[in-house]
Amino acid sequence: MRHLPGSIVPEPVTQVTPPGAAPFVLTTASRIVATTAAAPVADYLAALLRPSTGFPLPIIAPIERGPAGADRAPTHDIVLHLDVADTRNLGAEGYALETSAVGVFVTAATPAGLFYGIQSLRQLFPSQIEARSVQSAAWEAPATTVTDHPRFSYRGAMLDVVRHFFGVDEVCRFIDVIALFKINVLHLHLTDDQGWRITIDSHPELTSIGGATEVDGGPGGFYSKDDFARIVEHAAQRFVTIVPEIDVPGHTNAALSSLPELNPDGNPVTPYTGTEVGFSTLDTTSDATWAFLDDVFREVAEQTPGPWLHFGGDESHVTPHDAYREFVGKASRLVASHGKIPIAWHEAGAGTDLAPGTVGQYWSSLSPNEIAVDRARSFVRQGGSLILSPSDVAYLDMSYDESSPIGLSWADGPTSVRASYEWEPTEILPDASTAILGIEAPLWTETVRSRADIDYLVFPRLIAVAEIAWSAPATESPRRVWPDFAARLEALEPHLTAAGITPGKQVRGHDVGQAV
Known about the structure:
This protein is of the alpha/beta class. The protein contains 14 helices and 19 strands. It has an eight-stranded parallel barrel with strand order 10-11-14-15-16-17-18-19, surrounded by seven helices. A seven-stranded mixed β-sheet has the order 1-9-6-7-5-3-4. It has a two-stranded antiparallel sheet with strand order 2-8. It is globular, with a radius of gyration of 24 Å.
């Protein structure tokens, strides 16, 4: 199957591309038309288009225009229009996009909707639009009309900055790339056995000692409060919410090596640079532990304007079961006391006294696992919702196949691009499908040491998961099938290349009916 001109990923709700219609042409005379309320999005668009086109693209106030239709005079402008009264039920993140010889019109009820409309628009232009230096290209976008809105409100990616540390610039670059696919949450896994990556003023040892290690004995690193504020601000400008994770009571060796008072015998443990899991735990009954957690959750909450704070709860294999059940309930309530909605991995569903609204993140496989599924259901029974991250299809650290130079295979073996695409969230817990908050694709970094490694494992599988999170299910959309997605992904590949991204697996040249 060959892609149609004007294909978009994730697949929009509706898209009509009239055959033979004249395209929109961006020229040196083009302007971006936006009100003051839309100015931040206009600034983003100008910064995106100016480097590759070399055009000035001034931002101007709106001018009077007639209704959409052939009576409008040809123009080369891009108009960003906020309209809370739009009758197309676009919602808080939806948009309408029209490209034609009379201009580009992006309409939304919110700046976020305008931003997502821009992500679709940039895919319509030649791939050189992604370059950061002036390119020679015919800057045309085919005539098309799109009406679009997301399926799920939470569309996440996770970056583990503990196993291997990634600095502010790398995280901000990751945010820039995931925004193209309408991802709106970045979950940062900030603490684990191998390191502690966020500054806590009340316990500076966490970063001076716990931040100095990583897998294989590397130098580690951590974010100062200014660093973390830069990440949060950069994300907010791209309508991405940061979810910080402080993983407790297991995955805590870095904390235990930093603060002796967290250990029952009062002695610090040895820093850890391996990749095993499940061997560490806080003393769940110690007053020192709860004073520590109160300090940490308070300071992390103060640094995070988003609504969520993730407290982990996974793989606490050496925490006594009854102590664990009591701990996760108390931890969830402590997070809530600092004004945040708690999130925990699905194991925390073993607790029966979770804070109201606590969100469970399911990470078991698609295959039935009654214990994991029941733990996930427990969040719903207690008034919470679910984020789905099935490890065998959504974990980006899994290898593609036996030839992959990096990646793991513990989640039922390698994960192809096709496997990442062909799953339906509501089939995991059919009786709790209405409680699904959204989808998240995590990248754990045991084998990931560089930006190139991130790109290799994340793309194109994150794009597959992003379409599941944004687009209508296959039962409602004839284009939500693997052959069509593979064709659209093939069309998108030059955009990734122009943006400096080298995907781990290409679709070009493959039989789209086979796993990639």
